């Protein structure tokens, strides 16, 4: 299974790079960072119906770091929520594929883009599931720089207060934000302990190891009555060597040469998997 | 063609003054690059305070710094600063009349393709509704430089909105009188008055040239300060010209058009027309594409002006 998901991740990386290049806009590093998390969730973990996007029992997904939207749109297109061709309209005049998640796009639950909103919304969704005695889970992907917003911690408090074991937060812990290293901009460490002290079950994983991600997602909630936070250690710009761990690639757009180089790298990763 | 964005002018001016006055501080929220304040941070590292992505916190911290004698300038995204932090602005800044300058960068439709979360089209409405707040939208680089110098002498909380990109010059040079709260008359005329603010002033000025060809003499007022409003200039315009057209990069609710209408109707009612963004989540597109789409272009302003003058 893992191999096919790894191939899918490469395909999504390729697709998002082309989308950003065509639009001459986008958050390249941020999006590459969350690909493996989103691929694992969408192709293996969550239940939903592409033909019935508002199916009541579906698992809910929120991309709270809304600027990392390209991987999300590319996955939704690949799953058939909308025609792949439409990716060419990303960020263009009158498009519905605007530069942050937009719920006019089938498969997108809520609009995000202003950081620090996703977790409180997820708390509301998880609470509704409890009230309605429904079995769905709520997944919310956040940035690590985003953790400086106070609303995250208000949501964190409420989630453990209401014992929302159907809520799973994932932090894309790439240690970079726009200006530089999170620990220089607004330090988060000791990060695990912070979430623990807010009453969450904390699990740390390699956010690019799909096997590890699968194992964790499939075994949550680990603790009844506790929300789970997954600190996913990632690399911003993952998959393209010259973009990796570089803050400058947060919202830089590759030029033609860089795109070609990046696509070549992805092809060789694909080749390695085939062997 | 000017290549320097207004936000960059604010930075350059603050660097100059900040070297002489160490109390001048710039606060950023993972936004020093976007705010063009990186250079300030490089040249005056001890005077740049980074708070991370936390717009409520940044205002509270600035309030504390100001009440301890510092001169804080907050430079962060207009969309988030104006809405996310509005209670801190109301209570921590306005209520206590705290001397903090709030610079909203990439305002209006600057982030056009990024959607409503990033559009700042309600900021003026919110700021204007708060007592003690001064609200300023500079039009070009000369004005921005003069404004920044004035702000350093101006005590009390101020909201300044600038865009993301460089804008064409309106003034020929820095050789003009600038006073916070006093409108600038850019062209004389008595057929109608066009009042514009911020980075839409250029379209208004250009439209007056088109109107002149049609034999319509438009007075163009650059209302760089929306609050306190230069009521005198507005009332005078109402008395001396037949009608008023307003132009702004803001929601039709609560911006320039609203406040001018409010002043006109209570003092000297004349017909008015407002060009602004309608009450909808603005569509996606580049800023200038959206200007065109929503009618903030010299052509459309001239068209509306002709229609308005016909009615009067
Ligand atoms: C409320 C708010 N403030 C500021 C921004 C501007 N902004 C967009 S992305 C970003 C940095 C995000 O860093 P992080 O959460 O670490 O995500 P990464 O891209 O590194 O995964 C900032 C400051 C925003 N979108 N929302």
- Secondary-structure content class of chain B: alpha/beta
Q: Please tally the β strands of chain B and state the result.
A: 12
Query: How is the biggest beta sheet of chain A arranged?
Result: 5 strands, parallel
- Class based on secondary structure composition and strand pairing of chain A: alpha/beta
* CA-atom Rg of chain B in angstroms: 19 Å
Based on Cα principal axes, name the global outline of chain A.
Answer: globular
Task: State the domain count of chain B.
Answer: 2
Q: Uncertain regions of chain A: pLDDT < 50 for 5+ in a row?
A: none
Number of contiguous helices of chain B: 12
State the CATH topology of chain A. Rossmann fold
Cofactor (chain B): thiamine diphosphate
Keywords (chain B): Thiamine pyrophosphate
Family (chain B): Belongs to the transketolase family.
Pfam family, one (chain B): Transket_pyr
Describe the structure in brief:
The complex is a heterodimer of chains A (275) and B (312). By secondary structure, chain A is of the alpha/beta class.
Please characterize this protein's 3D structure.
The complex is a heterodimer of chains A (275) and B (312). Chain A has nine helices and five strands; from the N terminus they run H-H-E-H-H-E-H-E-H-H-E-H-E-H. With 275 residues, chain A is an alpha/beta fold. Chain A is globular, with a radius of gyration of 18 Å. Chain B is an alpha/beta fold. Chain B folds into two domains: 6-161, Thiamin diphosphate (ThDP)-binding fold, Pyr/PP domains (Rossmann fold, 3-Layer(aba) Sandwich), CATH 3.40.50; 184-310, Rossmann fold (3-Layer(aba) Sandwich), CATH 3.40.50.920. Chain B is 40% helix and 19% strand. Chain B contains twelve helices and twelve strands. In chain B, the strands form two sheets. In chain B, strands 2-1-3-4-6-5-10 form a seven-stranded mixed sheet, with helices on both faces. In chain B, helix 7 links the parallel strand 5 (134-136) and strand 6 (158-161). The radius of gyration of chain B is 19 Å and the shape is globular. The structure holds thiamine diphosphate. Thiamine diphosphate sits between chains A (30, 33, 65, 67-68, 113-116, 143-146, 172, 174, 176-178, 236, 250) and B (30, 53, 55, 77, 80, 84). Chain B: Keywords: Thiamine pyrophosphate. Chain B: Pfam families: Transket_pyr, Transketolase_C. Chain B: Residues 4-169 form the Transketolase-like pyrimidine-binding domain. Chain B: Belongs to the transketolase family.
């Amino acid at each position: 299974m893992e191999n096919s998901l790894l191939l899918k991740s490469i395909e999504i990386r390729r697709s998002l790079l082309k989308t950003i290049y065509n639009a001459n806009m986008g958050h390249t590093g941020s999006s590459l960072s969350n690909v493996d998390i989103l691929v694992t969730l969408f192709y293996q973990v969550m239940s939903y119906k592409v033909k019935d996007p508002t199916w009541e029992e579906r698992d809910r997904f929120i991309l709270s770091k809304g600027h990392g939207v390209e991987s999300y749109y590319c996955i939704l297109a690949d799953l058939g929520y909308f025609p792949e061709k439409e990716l060419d309209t990303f960020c263009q005049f009158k498009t519905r594929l605007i530069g942050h998640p937009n719920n006019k796009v089938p498969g997108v639950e809520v609009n995000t883009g202003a950081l620090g909103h996703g977790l409180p919304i997820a708390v509301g969704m998880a609470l509704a599931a409890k009230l309605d005695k429904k079995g769905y889970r709520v997944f919310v992907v956040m940035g690590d720089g985003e953790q400086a917003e106070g609303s995250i911690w208000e949501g964190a408090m409420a989630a453990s207060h209401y014992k929302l074991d159907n809520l799973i937060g994932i932090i894309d812990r790439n240690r970079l934000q726009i200006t530089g290293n999170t620990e220089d901009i607004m330090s988060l460490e000791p990060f695990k302990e912070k979430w623990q002290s807010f009453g969450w079950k904390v699990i740390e994983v390699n956010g690019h190891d799909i096997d590890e991600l699968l194992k964790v997602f499939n075994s949550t909630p680990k603790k009844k009555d506790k929300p789970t936070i997954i600190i996913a250690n990632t690399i911003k710009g993952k998959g393209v060597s010259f973009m990796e761990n570089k803050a400058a690639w947060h919202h830089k757009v590759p030029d033609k040469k860089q795109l070609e180089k990046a696509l070549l790298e992805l092809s060789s990763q694909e080749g390695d998997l085939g062997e | 063609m000017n290549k320097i964005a207004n936000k960059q002018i604010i930075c350059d001016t603050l660097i100059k003054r900040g070297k002489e006055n160490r109390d001048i501080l710039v606060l950023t929220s993972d936004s020093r690059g976007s705010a063009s304040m990186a250079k300030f941070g490089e040249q005056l590292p001890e005077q740049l305070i980074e708070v991370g992505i936390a717009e409520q916190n940044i205002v509270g911290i600035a309030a504390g710094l100001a009440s301890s004698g510092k001169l804080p300038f907050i430079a962060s995204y207009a969309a988030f600063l104006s809405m996310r932090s509005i209670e801190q602005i109301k209570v921590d800044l306005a209520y206590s009349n705290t001397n903090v300058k709030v610079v909203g960068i990439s305002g209006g439709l600057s982030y056009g393709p990024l959607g409503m979360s990033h559009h700042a089209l309600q900021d003026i409405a919110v700021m204007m509704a708060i007592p003690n707040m001064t609200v300023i939208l500079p039009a070009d680089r000369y004005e921005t430089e003069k404004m920044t110098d004035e702000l350093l002498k101006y005590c009390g909380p101020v909201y300044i909105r600038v865009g993301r990109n460089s804008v064409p010059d309106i003034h020929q040079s820095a050789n003009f009188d600038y006073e916070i709260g006093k409108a600038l008359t850019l062209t004389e005329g008595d057929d109608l008055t066009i009042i514009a603010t911020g980075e839409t002033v250029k379209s208004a000025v250009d439209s007056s040239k088109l109107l002149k060809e049609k034999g319509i003499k438009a007075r163009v007022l650059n209302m760089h300060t929306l609050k306190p409003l230069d009521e005198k200039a507005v009332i005078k315009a109402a008395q001396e010209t037949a009608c008023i057209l307003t132009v702004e990069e803001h929601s039709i609710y609560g911006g320039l058009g609203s406040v001018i209408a409010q002043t006109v109707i209570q003092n000297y009612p004349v017909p008015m027309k407002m060009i602004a963004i309608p009450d909808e989540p603005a569509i996606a597109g580049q800023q200038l594409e959206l200007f065109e789409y929503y009618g903030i272009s010299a052509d459309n302003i001239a068209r509306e002006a002709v229609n308005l003058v016909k009615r009067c």
